[in-house]
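User: Could you check the structure of this?
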Amino acid sequence: MAEERSAAEQLKDKLFYNKKNSSVRMDRTAQENAFAFCEGYKRFLDRSKTEREAVTTAVGMLEKEGFRPLEYGKKYRPGERVYYNNRGKSLVCATIGRRPLSEGLRIAAAHVDSPRLDLKPSPLYEDRELAFFKTQYYGGIKKYQWTTIALAAHGVIVKKDGTRVDIVIGEDPADPVFCVPDLLPHLAQEQMKRPLADGVAGEELNIILGSLRYGGEELDEAVKLNILNILFEKYGVTEEDFLSAELTFVPAEKARDVGLDRSIVGSYGHDDRVCAYTELMAALDAITPEYTAVTVFADREETGSDGNTGMQSAFFRSFVSALCEPYDIPLWVVLGSSKCFSADVNAAFDPTFADVSEFRNASRLGYGVVVTKYTGGAGKGGTSEASAEFMAFTRELLDKNGVVWQTGELGKVDVGGGGTVAKFLANLDIDVVDVGVPVLSMHAPLELVSKLDVYNTYLAFRHFYE
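Assistant: Sure, the predicted structure tokens are below.
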């Protein structure tokens, strides 16, 4: 017979906050569900390596489940489903709830852009009979991580007549891939004296394209000419067309299981497509929610959320206004009554680099969805902060529905920090808290997430919408 627990032990259980690993708190069936859920997530990642592709993939999934483009001036009934595709790069959708809009919305907002290498407007050049693309990195990266890995080209070229050419090269096994070359260690003595942040400079992130001369002829820039001829024959584009292109280079690797126990997904783009996918799947499951369930895929978060597809633009407010106006409900009434889960990732504790985290308040891989009360930098700069009331609402929601969750912050005070779209939604008078997945190696070409955390994040959004 098991010994009875002492009064002190029972009191400790009652009063202490005790984080527990998801694998301890989830039964075998729940763990199997998590693993199965992440098979769909891996397929989504492989189809969605840019914000354009994520939006296109999501729209296809939405339309299969009865979502239709928003019609301005139309009064929607509970259960009807609408979406607005903003320039192919951001997206907002809604399932109309049973309660009136004046009682507020349930909003989950993720971003679908990720760090990458973009082409400069005039990128193609030849140097010593090698052809290259010049790039400009997008978002916060460790530049040295982007050398000597296989890269794929994704994007669009739009000609002057409006013809659009979609480009994906490097994803099919039969395709060539691309690469940023680096110095061999034998000749890198001076390079290796640079500070780590400058080990590879931005202007050194040049993508090699080829080495063959056009027709074997002895003329200037014959290698560049050969590359342009290949592009013209396949896509009908000329060098001038790069001026109206959005071409991006991302890791060519597919999403894969990591570790002998297959508990981790390794992929490019977890930040923040892991939250985009989980909120999207929750939105598809919200058939007749109590409150109108709104899902946002935002662009440009990695560079400040500016621009007409970023969270600081008017597209989200315009969408909500379109829902409200037929009922003569002021926008401020709806927004001020709304609740939002800002769906973004947090930095998982890494024992190898433990000194940058404060362990008691760090999120951990495998411990469930992370609730982040505030982000920002030193002195809580550049962030909003969830109120005590909204944190209490979130705690009750997650605990009541058996969601495994934890809290987290973005590193020690004065060490670093970061931001999400939360503050832009809070500025609209919406109650907001960050909810998402802990990530190891964030912003690297290969990021790591726990399957159990991914699944619990989906459950958090699903119960939030319900």
